[in-house]
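Support request from a user on the community tier.

User writes: "When I paste my structure tokens into the form, the page sometimes reloads and wipes my input. The last time it worked, I copied everything first. Here is what I submitted, just in case something in the input itself triggers the reload:"
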């Protein structure tokens, strides 16, 4: 969720810089527009790479087969339970 909001804000800021809306930068217009283009397109590439890394490293918590089916796990020989039903 945070990455999606950051992407939207980054794109809006780059477009505002390019169009000169609500932002006063003391530099030649051509340089500001070039910087805004680099920010817009380069930021998209960086954000896509970041999203790829996030997806590649994200590991959901694994459940046992019995917990996935909604049944309590069997007690092992040592007296331990395979699934914790508490908080």
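"...and here is what came back when it finally went through:"
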């Amino acid at each position: 969720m945070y990455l999606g909001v950051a992407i939207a804000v980054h794109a809006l800021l780059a477009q505002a810089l390019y169009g000169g809306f609500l932002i006063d930068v003391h530099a030649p217009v051509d340089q500001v527009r070039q910087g805004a283009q680099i920010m817009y397109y380069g930021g998209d590439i960086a954000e896509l790479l970041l999203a790829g890394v996030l997806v590649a490293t994200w590991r959901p918590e694994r459940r046992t087969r019995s917990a996935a089916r909604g049944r309590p796990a069997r007690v092992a020989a040592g007296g331990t339970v395979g699934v914790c039903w508490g908080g």
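Agent notes: The reload is a front-end session timeout and is unrelated to the input. The longest helix spans residues 29-57. The CA atoms of residues 65 and 73 lie 8 Å apart. Escalated to web team.
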